[in-house]
Design a protein that fits this description.
- Chain B: Residues 2-78 form the 2Fe-2S ferredoxin-type domain.
- Chain B: InterPro entries: 2Fe-2S-bd, 2Fe-2S-bd_dom_sf, 2Fe-2S_ferredoxin-like_sf, 2Fe-2S_ferredoxin-type, Beta-grasp_dom_sf, Diverse_Oxidoreductases.
- The complex is a heterodimer of chains A (796) and B (167).
- Chain A is α+β, with helices and mostly antiparallel strands and 796 residues long.
- Chain A folds into 3 domains: 35-143 and 209-258 and 263-277, Aldehyde oxidase/xanthine dehydrogenase, a/b hammerhead (Aldehyde Oxidoreductase, domain 3, Alpha-Beta Complex); 303-473 and 639-795, Aldehyde Oxidoreductase, domain 4; 489-635, Aldehyde Oxidoreductase, domain 4, CATH 3.30.365.
- Chain A has a 7-stranded mixed beta sheet with strand order 3-5-1-12-9-10-11. Chain A has a 5-stranded mixed beta sheet with strand order 7-15-14-13-8, sandwiched between helices. A 4-stranded mixed beta sheet of chain A has the order 18-26-27-28, sandwiched between helices.
- In chain A, α9 (379-397) packs across α10, α9 packs parallel to α18 and α14 (515-527) runs parallel beside α15 (555-581).
- The longest helix of chain A has 27 residues, at 555-581.
- Chain B has helices spanning 23-30, 87-94, 104-116, 124-130, 142-155, and strands at residues 3-8, 11-16, 49-52, 55-58, 71-73.
- Chain B has a 5-stranded mixed beta sheet, sandwiched between helices.
- The N and C termini of chain B lie far apart (53 Å).
- The chains are: A alpha+beta (796), B alpha+beta (167).
- Chains A and B meet through α1 and α17 of A and α2, α3, α4 and α5 of B.
C-alpha cells in the first residue's frame, strides 16, 4: 500500500470533489427537484416595452385542462405584499436620495419592459400552465418607450416612472472638481475619448428556476432557487416582499449552473412561487426557458462615457475627468445603483498615480430589463475606459504605450497607496506583472509576426491592458456609509465530528467556483484533515448559520477568512483540551496540521484524540470547557482586495471579411495567494472568454420601440469553442496584507482585464486606418466598414 | 395519448406521452433522469445532448415519439456499474473541463460521439469545430478541448491513462 498522501493543502491542484456528481448526471439543480402534488407556474410577460394595463381577463382559462388558477398583479396587491427591494441607496450631488420608484412583483398598472410579469398561470403541468397563460387576454394601452439611454435622456422623453423627471435615477459624483480644473489648466495635453460599454446578457447556462413550498401545519415556507446568495434572498423576500419571518422561511440554493452576477438578485419569480404555494397549499415550480432568461435576468454594463485625461509634457498623468451615463433599465435591481458608482468610479485610478480624479455619473431609467452587476460589475467598465484612454494618449503624445503605462505606474514601494477616489490599495507590483506578460507574449518579437501576417494578407495587432480591480467586498461600515443596506461580512462554521471528519458550513455559495474542493483544502492545510474527509455545506439557510453569498470575487477573501478564523477558535479550544489530556500548560501546546504537541517534547495528540475527548468528555475539564468541537466565525473584511495584472491580446484581421481572430492571449494576474492553481487558471480562462465575448461578439440590442432583438441564443452571439484560441495564464503573487490567507480573488479578473486588451489589439491591427474609437463588439461588419472606408457603417 | 417504448441506459421503458412531449421531457420528468439538462429553447446550447442508437442528438428538439424503439444513452448511463468513469468523464475531471457542471452532460455526450467519428484522431481545431453545437459559459472551452484530446487518445488506445502525467 502506498502510504504517501499527496499534498492537498494550499497550493495543490487538487482535482475537484464536486466533479463526481456533475460528471455522472447526479448534480441537483433547482429544476431537478420535484415534489408530491407539485404544480407548475408559467409567467405571462409583457410583449410591450411600455404600456398601461387596462385589464387582464383570465376568464378563458377557466376549465382548461389541468389549470388550477391564475394570479394577477391585482391579486397580489390585495395581499398587501411589498415590492421588490433595492439593496443600495445612492445620494445625489445635492445630498438628496436617488429616485427609487416601486417595483411590483407582478405589474398591475403599467408594464415597463418587454418581459415584465403580468400574470402567473398555475396548472398541473408546465405545458398546461403555458397554454393557460396564452389564453389570458391583456388589454394594453401602448405608450411610447424610452428604449435606450439616448432616447430616455431626450427632452420630452417618455417617463418610465411617473414623477421621475428626465428618467434620472441619480446624479452622483466623486472627487474634487476645483482641484481637477486647476490640474487641467496646467496640462500640456488633454486627451479626450468617447466610449460605449456595450450592454451584455449574462446567460449562465442554467436558466433560473424556483420551487416554492408551504407546510400549513407548521407555517413553514421553503424556496429552492437558482441563487448565488440564499440568505440574502431570505432576508429580502421575507422582510420586504412576503412578510415571512426568517424563522419560517428556508431558502435553498442547491447546485447552481453558473451565475456571473445574474443570480445575486431577488427576482419576482421567487416571490411568486413562494406566495402561490402558500395560497394554494401545494408546491409551485417555475423554470425559465431561455427566452425568458433573456428578458428577465438582469443585464450588465451599458454605459456611455466621455473621458478626458490631462498629461504633462513627459506623459505624466495630471488628472482624469469622466462623465458617464449608466442604464438602470426599468427598475432598480438589488444592487444596481452601486455598480456604476462605488464599483466603477472608485476604480478610475487603475494602476496609475493620478493626482486628481473627478467623475460624474448619471443613472437613467429606460424601458428595458433591469441592469445590475455582471462578472466584474463596474470594474470592467472603468478598466475599459482607462486602458483605451491610455492607448489613445500614447498614440497622440507619441510615447510608446507600454512606456506611458510604466511612467505612471504606482511603484511597488508606494503601498499602501491612497487613490484620490476613496480606495486604499494594500499591495501590488504592476511592473512585475507587466514584465512577465510582455515576456510571455513575446511582445518584443511582435513586429516580425505582424510582417509575416502581412505577407499572408492579414492585419495583425497586439494590445495590452494593465488593469486593477477591487474585490473581496467589503468592510460593512464602509459600504454602509456609501449606501449599502446590508453588511458584507461572511460566516463560516467548522464542525469537527467526534471521529475527526469535518463539516464546514459556509455562507459563500459555489455555482462553478469549486468551493467544495478549495475550501476543503484550507481545512486540510490548517487542520491536517484529508480533503476526502472534509465536506462543505453551502446554499441552505436551514443548515448554514448566515451568509452574504458569492459575488465580487469574495468567497475566499471573505468566506475563506471566516473559515480560518473559525479554525483558529477550534485550535484554541483544542489546545486547552490537549493541555488537559497531556497534563501540560496550555501555553506550551503547539499545533500544526492535525497534531497538538507539548513544546519541546515528543508528547503529542492527534486532532481526532481531541475531538473524541470533546464529544466523549469522560476525562475532560468539564467545569472549564464545554464539550463539543465546533466553532463559528463572522469575518468582516478590513478593506477591499486589489487584484491586478497585465493582459495581452494578439489578433489577426482578415481584411476581406473584417473578421477578427484571436491568435494569442496572455494573462499574468496577481490574485494574491493561490490555493488551487488548477481552479484559478480555470476561473481566469473563463473570465477571459467572457471578456473576449464582450469585445468581439456579444451585445444586447433593443429597437426604438424597446423590443429585444437579441432575445435568443440564435440572435445573441455567445462565444463558442472555435471563436476562442488557447489562453496562456500565469500568476505573479503579492499577498493581500489584511486577510489571514493573503488572497485577493480570481473570479472576475479575466472579464475585467481582457476587453481593452482585445480592442487595443484590434485598433493596433487597424493602425493604417487611423481608428481612434472603436465600440465593442468589434464585429466583422464594423471592421469591414472601417477597412473599406465605410465610416458611416462603422458608426452604426 | 401515444405510447412509446424505448431502452434507456439498458433499461426498457414504456410511457404514455403527448404528441408534443420532447424526448428531454420524457427523460427528465417521466424517467427522472435529470442529468440531461435544458439550457435553451432554440437548439443552440447542447446541454440536452444524449445518444440515440449511438449518435449524439439534442433531446430538446427530438419528440419523444421519434425515439420509439430506439436505444438511448444519457450521462447517467456512461459510467460502469462499479462506478468507474468513462474515459471522457475521467478526462473532464482531470483537466478541469467543468465548472458549474450544467453544460457538462451534453458536452461529454457530444465529445464521445465526436471522438468515435474520428478514429484517426482529432486536431485541436477539429475539436473546437466539433463543439459548435455546445455552449459553455464557465470554462472558455480550453480545458474542454484538452480533455477531449486526452480522452480521444485513451479511447483509441494511443495512451494508457487519462492522468496528466501521461502526457
Amino acid at each position: 500500500m502506498n502510504d504517501v498522501v499527496p499534498f492537498e493543502g494550499i497550493g495543490a491542484s487538487v482535482r475537484r470533489k464536486e466533479d463526481f456528481r456533475f460528471l455522472r448526471g447526479r448534480g441537483a439543480y433547482t429544476a431537478d427537484f420535484n415534489r408530491q402534488g407539485q404544480l407548475h407556474a408559467w409567467i405571462l410577460r409583457s410583449p410591450h416595452a411600455h404600456a398601461r394595463i387596462r385589464s387582464v381577463d383570465v376568464a378563458a382559462t377557466t376549465g382548461m385542462p389541468g389549470v388550477v388558477t391564475v394570479f394577477t398583479g391585482a391579486d397580489m396587491a390585495k395581499d398587501n405584499l411589498g415590492g421588490l427591494p433595492c439593496g443600495w441607496q445612492i445620494h445625489n450631488k445635492d445630498g438628496s436620495p436617488m429616485a427609487e420608484p416601486p417595483h411590483a412583483v407582478i405589474a398591475h398598472d403599467k408594464v415597463r419592459h418587454v418581459g415584465d410579469p403580468v400574470a402567473v398561470a398555475i396548472a398541473a403541468t408546465r405545458d398546461q400552465a403555458r397554454d393557460a397563460a396564452e389564453a389570458i387576454v391583456v388589454d394594453y394601452d401602448v405608450l411610447p418607450a424610452a428604449a435606450t439611454l439616448e432616447a430616455a435622456l431626450k427632452p420630452g422623453a417618455p417617463e418610465v416612472h411617473g414623477g421621475v423627471a428626465g428618467n434620472l435615477c441619480y446624479d452622483w459624483h466623486i472627487g474634487d472638481k476645483t482641484v481637477l480644473d486647476a490640474a487641467f489648466a496646467k496640462a500640456h495635453k488633454i486627451v479626450s475619448l468617447d466610449l460605449v460599454n456595450n450592454r451584455l446578457i449574462p446567460n449562465a447556462m442554467e436558466p433560473r428556476a424556483a420551487l416554492g413550498e408551504y407546510d400549513p401545519t407548521t407555517g413553514d415556507y421553503t424556496l429552492h432557487t437558482t441563487s448565488q446568495n440564499p440568505h440574502v434572498i431570505r432576508l429580502l423576500m421575507g422582510a420586504n416582499v412576503l412578510h415571512i419571518p426568517e424563522s419560517k422561511l428556508r431558502v435553498v440554493a442547491p447546485d447552481v449552473g453558473g451565475g456571473f452576477g445574474s443570480k445575486i438578485y431577488h427576482y419576482a419569480e421567487e416571490a411568486i412561487v413562494t406566495w402561490s404555494a402558500g395560497k394554494l397549499g401545494r408546491p409551485v415550480k417555475w423554470t425559465a426557458d431561455r427566452t425568458e432568461s433573456f428578458m428577465s435576468d438582469a443585464h450588465g454594463r451599458d454605459h456611455v462615457s466621455k473621458a478626458d485625461l490631462a498629461l504633462d509634457a513627459n506623459g505624466t498623468i495630471l488628472g482624469l475627468k469622466v462623465h458617464t451615463y449608466a442604464n438602470m433599465g426599468a427598475y432598480l435591481s438589488t444592487f444596481a445603483p452601486c455598480v456604476p458608482t462605488y464599483l466603477y468610479a472608485t476604480l478610475l485610478a487603475g494602476t496609475y498615480i493620478t493626482p486628481v480624479i473627478y467623475a460624474e455619473v448619471k443613472a437613467v431609467f429606460t424601458n428595458t430589463v433591469p441592469v445590475d452587476a455582471y462578472r466584474g460589475a463596474g470594474r470592467p467598465e472603468a478598466t475599459f475606459l482607462l486602458e483605451r484612454l491610455m492607448d489613445v494618449a500614447a498614440l497622440e503624445s507619441g510615447i510608446d504605450r507600454v512606456e506611458l503605462r510604466r511612467r505612471n505606474f504606482i511603484q511597488p514601494d508606494q503601498f499602501p497607496y491612497q487613490t484620490p477616489v476613496a480606495l486604499q490599495y494594500d499591495s501590488g507590483n504592476y511592473q512585475a506583472t507587466l514584465d512577465q506578460a510582455l515576456a510571455a507574449a513575446d511582445w518584443a518579437g511582435f513586429e516580425s509576426r505582424r510582417a509575416e501576417a502581412a505577407k499572408r494578407g492579414k492585419l495583425r495587432g497586439i494590445g495590452c491592458s494593465t488593469y486593477l480591480e477591487a474585490c473581496g467586498i467589503a468592510p460593512s461600515a464602509v459600504v454602509g456609509s456609501l449606501g449599502a443596506r446590508a453588511g458584507l461580512y461572511e460566516v463560516g462554521t467548522i464542525r469537527v465530528h467526534p471521529t475527526g471528519s469535518v463539516t464546514v458550513l459556509t455562507g459563500a455559495h459555489s455555482h462553478g467556483q469549486g468551493h467544495e474542493t478549495t475550501f476543503a483544502q484550507l481545512v486540510a492545510d490548517k487542520l491536517g484533515v484529508p480533503v476526502a474527509q472534509v465536506d462543505i455545506v453551502h446554499g441552505d439557510t436551514a443548515k448554514v448559520p448566515f451568509g452574504m453569498g458569492t459575488y465580487g470575487s469574495r468567497s475566499l477573501a471573505v468566506g475563506g477568512s471566516a473559515m480560518m478564523k473559525a479554525m483558529d477558535k477550534v485550535i484554541a479550544k483544542g489546545k486547552r483540551i490537549a493541555a488537559h489530556l497531556m497534563e501540560a500548560s496550555v501555553d506550551d501546546i503547539e499545533f500544526e496540521r492535525g497534531t497538538f504537541r507539548v513544546a519541546g517534547t515528543d508528547k503529542t495528540k492527534a486532532l481526532v484524540d481531541i475531538s473524541v475527548a470533546a464529544y466523549v468528555p469522560h476525562n475532560y475539564p468539564i467545569d472549564e470547557i464545554e464539550p463539543g468541537l465546533e466553532e463559528t466565525a463572522f469575518y468582516d473584511p478590513k478593506n477591499f482586495t486589489y487584484p491586478g495584472g497585465c493582459h495581452i491580446a494578439e489578433v489577426e484581421i482578415d481584411p476581406e471579411t473584417g473578421k477578427v481572430s484571436m491568435v494569442n492571449f496572455t494573462a499574468v494576474d496577481d490574485v494574491g495567494r493561490v490555493i488551487n492553481p488548477m481552479i484559478v487558471e480555470g476561473q481566469v480562462q473563463g473570465g477571459i472568454a467572457q471578456g473576449i465575448g464582450q469585445a468581439l461578439l456579444e451585445t444586447c440590442v433593443y429597437d426604438a420601440d424597446g423590443q429585444l432583438l437579441s432575445g435568443s441564443m440564435m440572435d445573441y452571439t455567445m462565444p463558442r469553442a472555435d471563436d476562442l484560441a488557447p489562453v496562456s495564464v500565469a500568476t505573479h503573487t503579492t499577498l493581500c496584507t489584511h486577510n489571514p490567507l493573503g488572497v485577493k480573488g480570481c473570479g472576475e479578473v479575466g472579464a475585467i482585464g481582457s476587453p481593452p486588451a482585445v480592442i487595443n489589439a484590434v485598433v493596433d491591427a487597424l493602425r493604417d486606418f487611423k481608428v481612434r474609437t472603436l465600440d465593442m463588439p468589434a464585429t466583422p461588419a464594423k471592421i469591414w466598414g472601417i477597412i473599406n472606408g465605410g465610416r458611416a457603417m462603422a458608426a452604426e | 395519448m401515444p405510447q412509446v417504448t424505448l431502452t434507456v441506459n439498458g433499461q426498457t421503458h414504456t410511457a404514455e406521452v403527448e404528441g408534443r412531449t420532447l424526448l428531454v421531457e420524457l427523460l427528465r420528468e417521466t424517467l427522472r433522469l435529470t442529468g440531461t439538462h435544458v439550457g435553451c429553447d432554440t437548439s443552440q446550447c447542447g446541454a440536452c445532448v444524449v445518444h440515440i442508437d449511438g449518435e449524439s442528438v439534442k433531446a430538446c428538439t427530438t419528440l419523444a415519439v421519434m425515439a420509439n424503439g430506439s436505444n438511448v444513452t444519457t450521462i447517467e448511463g456512461l459510467a460502469a456499474a462499479d462506478g468507474t468513469l468513462h474515459p471522457m468523464q475521467e478526462a473532464f475531471r482531470e483537466y478541469h473541463a467543468l465548472q458549474c457542471g450544467f453544460c457538462t452532460p451534453g458536452m461529454v455526450m457530444s465529445a464521445i460521439d465526436l471522438v468515435k467519428k474520428h478514429p484517426d484522431g482529432l486536431t485541436e481545431q477539429q475539436i473546437r469545430e466539433g463543439l459548435e453545437g455546445n455552449l459553455c459559459r464557465c470554462t472558455g472551452y480550453h480545458n474542454i478541448v484538452k480533455a477531449i484530446a486526452a480522452a480521444a487518445e485513451v479511447m483509441h488506445g494511443k495512451r494508457a491513462e487519462i492522468a496528466r502525467a501521461a502526457e
